[in-house]
Predict the structure.
Amino acid sequence: MNIPSCARSTAGCVLVLVLWLGLALTAPPAAANPQEGTEPLRVELTSMSPAVLRPEGELTVRATVHNDSSETVTDPSVKLIMQRHVLTTRAAVDAWQDGTTSALIATATPFTAELEEDLEPHSTTAFTITMPSSPTFAETSAWGPRGIEVDVTGILEAAPTTGSARSLLLWFPSESPLRSPAELSVLTPLTPTGAEWHQAASEGRPVGEVAATRLLPVLRATSGAEMSWALDPALLESAPPVPATPLELGAEEAGDPDPDQAEPADRSDTDPGSDDNDPPSSPTDQDAPEAPEGTDDDAPGGGGTDGEGQDDGANGDQNDDGAAGEDTTDVAPGAGAGGPGADPNELATHLIEHTARRDVVGLDYADTDLPALAHAGDLNLWRLGQQRGAALLNQARIAPLMDVHWPGGRIDGTTLAALAGEDAQVVVTPEYTLAPDAPAGLPGSPTQVSTTAGEVRAVVPDERISALLTGHDASGAELDSLTARQLLLADTAAALRESGEDGPGFLATLPRDVSEADLGGHLRELADAPWMDLANLRELLGRTPGSGSEPRTAATATLPDPHRLAPEEVLDLKQMHDDVANLAATLPDRQGLLDQVQPGLLTSLSASWADEAGARDELLERVADLGAELTGAVRVEPGSSVLLINHSGELPVAVANDLPVPARVTVALQPQDPRLRASEPITAVLDPETITTVRVPIQAVANGNVELDVQLLTEPEGEVVGQGASFVVRVRADWEDIGTAVVAVLLAVAFLIGLVRTIRSGQRRFDPADPAASAPRKRDSGAQNPGAHGASGAGSTSSSVPGGASSEEKRR
């Protein structure tokens, strides 16, 4: 089959075209920034001044060009290209910066200059190009950002080659075209990182002392700017998060215990409660640990203060479902012996001295992971952190903005609902927590957010400005200092033009782990921008939503977070604190004991442990051991079974107190069987570091072995405190009756035997079988009447009638 030559050439052209299109479609896209392409020339901008070009000024750009080829580039020249029109939206700024917008469209006449020398192979050449503002700009030129591009062109192997780099130029006339500039509030968090918490706990140092290395340079770098602080009260603690010797409390004298209710026991006695005369036997004692050496009069983390500057209502009242007996209004936690004038560390001193000139938001103590507590359904520990933080701030005389919250962790709808349920006034929350179901109001203005527990006012930070302040783009990629600065200025200018409002407000938040290196001086440049004023947070919160704004709703109720504590772990911490709080209620200095456990417990709830999960687990284990040691310091000593042979008696209970301070507890017995009854609980004062015997009356009802639980309670709340014990009471109430009956029978028998013997002995004295023994003996008359014998003369005798008696004897 013969095909005409014209047809063959047409088919060949079509085939070539198809192959070319296929290669074009499968080829990778060009680099967004021309300087990152495959061209042998690579241009880097090193500086550009001024940051904002004004009339009668000139733009100076310094850059370097790299010849990455192995050949010399000849006849190099520099060309500065600038967009003709202002970038009025943030999207347009992004399109220019990432290379989407062409530099050959809508650009002004390039400004050119020649390089003096050729570009040698693999060499780097620095150059400077300067462009005066006039005649390019006039007073009437539109203000705002414009894209610029620096191109370096030369000849490489007889072919032209080009390298380029882009940036943004800001122009603003002498007379401001704005009625009022925009306001930017910058909220700087001052809170320890997870690594700093770990170091403080491991080394036994106050966390403020550890975090000062990072935070003091941040404070000094921003000291001249109008910024607001979000302050973690834990930075003001003067003691480490976990005490090295938890049982060193401030010993205080207490009244002597009632001698009728309690008796000090000798530690050397193996059974201090036993008594040979008492029917019951007491539980066996165990030796308690001796007091640690070096006990001070003041608690390591607390102790009393002189009360100067203390507000009785600073802490508020504990919620009804809070920990039993919890009250921190009497003594400020963590006060130390120095009181408000103490200087625990340099950071705390700096904070106290400089808070009067700026707005302060009080963060939750240790920047609590509020979402973890909200998902556990129990906010008692969050309330505890609020109370402790308020006491520390009040002690330092720092007055934060009322009821403004910036919770840590990954906030979701459940978190916002929890705050709404706590009647929070304002919440700083990211944009992702709100559903895009209503048009946004004025930028930065508070907006009402509807949650399942009610409404709450929310302020949404500007994520782009917040990221650019630390040298990152919206995706989190790190930018060089010049690009970050110019992009920050261009973005804020475009945001102002895009809003269409006079003087809109913006809120920027710095990251929780902010450092001096993150700032890079960009904040100062932004503060000098003529279209932007730095304002305190109070002014931003006072703004009202625009006319077109509507209430918004929380987006997702639950957002997963692999770093969040599980609900059961949160509840375990809550129970441990309740146990310690109950024990503290029995001591003369209750806050001293709470200061031993609260800092570590609240620290373990911090959101800063996201990248330090292993260190948090270590802290949780230490906190659990600390709680067990404290709650076990007051306990009922276990013993063997007790024998009760009476209808009633006193049961001696040995109670140990390992604390260096006295404890006032109530000893209560709970029989598990109605065959034994216990009287009302007995209250006793336990001497420090000893074992005290408390005698509790009991009453037997019927015989049997009864298990008896002994509990220690607070007074008057009746909450369980310390460690109780259980043992068996062998009730033998009829043994006493049987014994009494046996003794009575024996006594009766003995009486009868004695009576019989007495009678028989009397009968033997007058035996009728012996006449001589029963007849009366003859009396001697001489003996009876000596005068008659003398009168009758010698040898004469008186006669008598046998068997009879004289008349005188008869008369007698």
Summary: DSSP finds 21 helices and 28 strands in the chain. The two ends are 196 Å apart (CA to CA). Residues 74 and 118 are 5 Å apart (CA to CA). The longest strand covers residues 144-156.
